[in-house]
Design brief:
The protein has 14 helices and 13 strands. It is α/β, with parallel strands linked by helices. The protein has a single domain, classed as Amidase signature (AS) enzymes. The strands form two sheets. It has an eleven-stranded mixed β-sheet, with helices on both faces. Strands 4-5 form a two-stranded antiparallel sheet.
Length: about 475
């Protein structure tokens, strides 16, 4: 039989239905692999093997009775540490946060529980998700399984590592400036930032309208399955969509023939792009021509919206830390504290201007761009994973600001459009490259359809166990 470690959520559901495999067998296998790999990668903040087994046993009983809750019943999942799970702490990667049990499930968690998923634990993140790498004073350093000397990116660090090693099939992350797509690119997995509001959130992030929730998985089909579950309305989030989502799985076939696709290798900016990343992502972009799309190299024509991002980002950090005094701040990531302190000086007028005028101007610009092009392709990141424990690579001209090496992700948090990172090959050093597909606001199904077409044409490389550097 095919090894459990290689199976997707879609495949597990079919095997459960045919009784070729049981949720308990899958849970036992997954827990054993977590026990084996976790000391090397450090992907979890919470593990609860007893609860995992209990949920798996309940799922198995439902399948045996013919009463499965749906295709995800019995599928193992993880949840990022800034998303509520009833009975588990929600510490947001911070050692100064309360370790008391959270009182209720967040909307995405509740939908997974209703679908019968089996919870494996909560995954690591940098403190309050403030940066694009995977370390925090609370949990230490999370490592990239493709090369343990490198980092997995962040802030959905542990989620991406678990997806890469198939420690569970669906991993819920959050993305305020690239925090799903950055680690997806570094670890060679699929990472979707849906249109804002497609996945409800509660409590709402202090990063406000920048923050999206989305899945990291090994396959596009599993991403679509996850979206079918977590993309449904929840009255606790007044900013979320209130309509029932489409069937994202049913929307995957159809291909990209006839679509107008723009390829922008630098988004018109001056960021240095690693030559191997440039080559791999360009080849991936023009592979869409082979699939029947019209591909043209063209920049969308906006200037770097970093000031808009940092006005909103720093003010959100200030809000997150507003009740944390000097003694506790001394125990926190100094970079986070510095950003929060800068945010304390953002005026209400400046925040409102960024939130309303600047954000709307960029969104309108991209809406006009998408009248000409159905999709926009870019590299997800301009470089492969770099040395673990650093906020910036220390080479290549990226400086000391982590946003300098993530210029392709955060513009689409500002526009709130759907964007996905897909694996598109390996560098000569064996590290993944990521291709980003961006669609018009609300066109998540189109983005997933294009992603599915690319995956079928260019199957993704896999890592089965952590690789030590040589």
């Amino acid at each position: 039989m095919t090894a459990i470690a290689s199976l997707s959520a879609a495949e597990l559901g079919k095997l459960y239905a045919s009784r070729g495999l049981s949720p308990v067998e899958v849970a036992q296998d997954t827990l054993a692999r977590i026990e084996r790999f976790e000391p090397e990668v450090n992907a979890f903040t919470i593990r609860d093997a007893a609860l995992t087994r209990t949920m798996a046993e309940a799922s198995q009983a439902r399948w045996l009775k013919g009463e499965a809750l749906g295709p995800l019943d019995g599928v193992p999942v993880t949840i990022k540490d800034n998303i509520g799970v009833k009975g588990w702490p929600m510490r947001r990667g911070s050692a100064v946060a309360a370790s008391t049990p959270w009182p209720e499930d967040a909307p995405a968690t509740a939908r997974l529980r209703e679908a019968g998923c089996v919870f494996l634990g909560k995954t690591t993140m940098p403190e309050y998700g403030w940066k694009g790498v995977g370390d925090s004073p609370m949990s230490g350093i999370t490592r990239n399984p493709w090369n343990l000397a490198t980092g997995p990116g962040g802030s959905s660090s542990g989620a991406a590592v678990c997806a890469a090693l198939n420690l569970g099939c669906i991993h819920i992350g959050s993305d305020g400036a690239g925090s799903v797509r950055i680690p997806a690119a570094f670890t060679g997995v699929v990472g979707l930032k849906p249109s804002y509001g497609r996945v409800p959130a509660y409590p709402v992030s202090t990063m406000g309208f920048l923050a999206h929730l989305g899945p990291l998985t090994r396959t596009v089909t599993d991403t679509a399955l996850a979206m079918n579950a977590i993309g449904r309305p929840d009255s606790r989030d007044m900013t979320a969509a209130i309509d029932e989502p489409p069937d994202f799985v049913a929307g995957l076939p159809g291909g990209v023939k006839g679509l107008r696709i723009a390829w922008s290798p630098r988004l018109g900016g001056d960021v240095p792009v690693d030559p191997e990343i440039a080559s791999l992502t360009r080849a991936a972009a023009f592979a869409f021509r082979e699939l029947g799309a019209h591909v043209e190299e063209v920049d969308p024509g906006f200037s770097d919206p970093i000031e808009t991002l940092m006005t909103l980002w720093s003010a959100g950090a200030a809000l997150a830390l507003r009740k944390i005094g000097p003694e506790q701040r001394a125990q926190m990531d100094p970079g986070l504290v510095a950003v929060a302190e800068a945010g304390e000086h953002v005026t209400g007028a400046a925040y409102a201007d960024a939130l309303l005028n600047q954000r709307n101007a960029l969104a309108h610009h991209m809406a006009q761009f998408h009248e000409r092009f159905d999709l926009l392709l870019t590299p997800s990141l301009p470089l492969p994973a770099f040395e673990v424990g650093r906020d910036t690579p220390g080479h290549g001209g990226y400086g000391e600001d982590w946003t300098r090496w993530t210029p392709f992700t955060y513009p689409f948090n500002i526009t709130q459009a759907p964007a996905i990172s897909l694996p598109c090959g390996l560098t000569s050093g064996g590290l993944p490259a990521g291709l980003q597909i961006v669609g018009p606001f609300g066109q998540d199904s189109l983005v997933l359809r294009a992603a599915a077409a690319f995956e079928a044409a260019r199957p993704f490389a896999r890592v089965d166990a952590p690789v030590r550097s040589t």
